[in-house]
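Inputs:
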Amino acid sequence: MQEWKKIEDNKEQIEREKINTELSFLKSQINPHFFFNTLNNIYSLAITESKDTASAVMKLSSIMRYVLTDTQNNKVPLQSEVDFITNYIDLQLVRLTDKVKVDFLTGGVLENKQIAPLLFIPFIENAFKYGISTKDESAIEIKLVAKNEAVHFSVINTIVKSGNIIKDTTGIGINNVKRRLELLYQHKHKLTTAENNNQFIVHLDIDLT
Amino acid sequence: MMKCIAVDDEPLALQVITKYCEKISFLQLEKVFTNTDEAKEYLQHNAVDLIFLDIQMPDINGVQFYKNLTVKPQVIFTTAFKDYAVEGFNVDAIDYLLKPFEYDRFLKATYKAKEYLEFLSSQELQLNSLYVKVNYEMMKINLKDIELIEALDDYIKIYIKPTPVLTLMTLKSMLDKLPPKEFARIHRSYIVPLSKIEKFSKNKVTVAGKEVPIGSSYSDVYERLINISGHM
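Outputs:
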């Protein structure tokens, strides 16, 4: 009987480790293109002796520290995640033309809340990938509101009709985040996506309890 | 002086190219574009020797953009990712610049373009005539005498005065020998010398008194003729 319990314990332990490994693997999938692009932009800023060079380096540095160190923890303060998103958006804005309008709104109480890191960024990356054009006006609106013990997150972006035929790794990030949500917030999250009036809309609600 | 334009969806990348071009005396950067439609429009109305062209752009990939151009200047692709550079090999690019690129690397690419353009113009000067095989003899044809070239099964018929000549050749290989600025294929069966066109419409041209149809898959010729006539 004792022997049997030991085996069961072992099995559970192995299962947990498997999930942890899977989770850490899934988490590491931030698009490396972003880092390359940002370094390129910083190079451009430096070459043209722009006054924005130093602040861009600081933002990239914060992002890298966050992604490489802080997110090793299973949970991070919600405020840290919001700061990370703010820096990410700022760095994206450096490269865009004024044809695209980007808003990031936060609301509610962000303090004293913990959340699994990097759950929102794949949706934001996607909006920047599909919601920008250099020909037509487009808009990206990102909202994050913390109420009681829940976070409501949404991204609304214009769908840009693209003639771009380059295939890339789109979808991996989204699939990974779906899997992470299943593992971390089973029955505690609601993810919906919709297309409406030429807009792509993502809603993600997470119960943090 | 080489006239060039630069196309990139990111204004910052264009600033770098602008800055570099200012230092190169034989380059004249006419205009920069973030909008590929505007760049295409510009190219339809302005003669340009060279384009700096980003590959990874949100609306259209640079390689595709270049393939769609009716008149193709020389091109130097710029890209942040090696994977994209590979695509560029399918079109004849002068060079590929991997971002971020330093001034020296940029200068080297522009020198390549300069040398290539000089080579092309020296070739064009020499190419006043060519030889074709007619009845077991090589016969010299002066390009300025050609009125029309017609495909006849395995042969082509070159209309020159006083009598047309027949030679065993495909229309495609003939076209490759001719300077592209002076001759255009307008139909599966016809090549015409642009300078001898007397009249043209959307579906036919009159050259040396002969009416020749424009084939449906060669409809961009009309656009080209409009542009040429606009420049005269």
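Remarks. Helices of chain B lie at 11-22, 36-45, 62-68, 82-88, 103-126, 171-177, 220-231. The first strand of chain B starts at residue 2 and ends at 7.
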